[in-house]
Design brief:
- By secondary structure, this protein is of the alpha+beta class.
- The protein has 2 domains: 2-122 and 279-319, Diaminopimelate Epimerase, Chain A, domain 1 (Roll); 132-277, Diaminopimelate Epimerase, Chain A, domain 1 (Roll), CATH 3.10.310.
- 21% of the residues lie in helices and 37% in strands.
- It has helices at 29-39, 78-92, 174-178, 181-189, 229-241, 309-324; strands at residues 2-10, 13-19, 50-55, 62-68, 73-74, 96-100, 105-110, 120-125, 159-162, 166-171, 201-207, 213-219, 223-224, 251-255, 258-267, 270-278, 280-292, 295-305.
């Protein structure tokens, strides 16, 4: 099988984008997982956090399916959605579009550049649920907002929510970010455990005074990432619930891959979040792929660098400067 792809990233969260709208690919469900496990391996020549499959939709301008590097399928991916938003808008000559995801049809569109020279897109993050059965989280209550899970930690409080990916968020101090606490908690709830049978994304949030928030995420199916779009959105919503951030007010969200901007909206009891940030293309590649004993073997036939990363690196430098004022690594 010959495959064309684009290597892209949102906030350093990188993906291989495969267009099934323009190309007549026949990819089985088993092969999608195999492609994700093998092409995304950092030990191989490509490497990524996941694969974005862009497909036709009967309900929207396109459909996004996301497979993590471990072969699991994610319900949503905010950083990936920005990359798919750019691809669909450019392919269809639109400034705004709607994209079908596993749980919702979401609005996307071109946004004013978040930093000079960086293609920027705004995507809708929804639906939002605080019902623990939607994660699921198995404890004797219906919601968990800024409260303890004693079996995980005696020093932290957590908020659990689905956006629609499951997230466990804790506002912390620098000393906790510098420790192994997040790693230990994340690995425990993403292995065999009684609390989160399907695993969960775990985010530590540090308040950066008036400059925004810093979010570090252990992503289910991936591990620690440069950034997780739904985690940054969920974390912004949590800081809004706690009175740290304000409704309808842009919040700069810093991460290890750079920076995004989030805006929380509330309509009666329902929340949505705008996630605004880069959609950067790194290169285009042509591959020959064959499937051999459960593995996708790939040969790179051609590769063209797209030279957008230089502009993004300036945003990274700015973000690192801001974060370094508050967190000593």
């Amino acid at each position: 099988m010959n495959l064309e792809l684009i290597k892209c990233h949102g906030s350093g969260n990188d993906f291989l984008l495969i267009d099934e709208i323009s190309n007549n690919y026949t990819i089985t469900e088993e092969q999608r997982a195999e492609l994700a496990r093998n092409l995304c391996s950092r030990e191989e020549s490509l490497g990524a956090d996941g694969i974005l499959f862009v497909q036709n939709s009967e309900k929207a301008d396109g459909r996004m399916r996301v497979f993590n590097s471990d072969g699991s399928e994610a319900a949503m991916c905010g950083n990936g959605l920005r990359c798919v938003a750019r691809y669909i808008c450019e392919q269809q000559g639109k400034e705004e579009a709607v994209i079908e995801t596993m749980k919702a049809i979401l609005r996307v569109g071109i946004e004013e550049n978040i930093y000079p020279g960086i293609p920027t897109y705004k995507v809708e993050i929804s639906p939002v649920s605080f019902q623990l059965e939607d994660l699921p989280l198995r404890i004797e209550r219906n919601t968990l907002i800024n409260d303890q899970i004693s079996s995980l930690s005696n020093e932290l409080v957590f908020t659990a929510l689905a956006v629609p990916n499951p997230h466990l968020v804790s506002v912390v101090e620098s000393v906790q970010i510098q420790s192994d606490l997040q790693k230990n908690i994340s690995q425990s709830v993403n292995g065999p455990n009684e609390l989160f049978p399907d695993g969960v994304n775990v985010s530590f949030v540090k308040i950066l005074d008036g400059e925004g928030i810093y979010v570090r995420t252990y992503e289910r199916g991936v591990g620690f990432t440069n950034a997780c779009g739904t985690a940054m959105s969920a974390s912004t919503l949590v800081t809004t619930l706690l009175g740290i951030s304000n409704i309808e007010t842009p919040v700069n969200v810093f991460n290890n891959g750079g920076m995004v901007r989030c805006i929380v909206h509330k309509n009666q009891d329902d929340y949505t979040i705008d996630l605004i940030g880069n959609a950067t293309y790194l290169y285009q590649a042509s591959l020959y792929v064959h499937f051999d004993g459960g593995k996708a073997r790939a040969e790179i036939l051609s590769k063209q660098e797209l030279l957008e990363e230089e502009s993004y690196s300036k945003l990274q430098e700015h973000a690192q400067t801001v974060v370094a004022k508050y967190i000593q690594n």
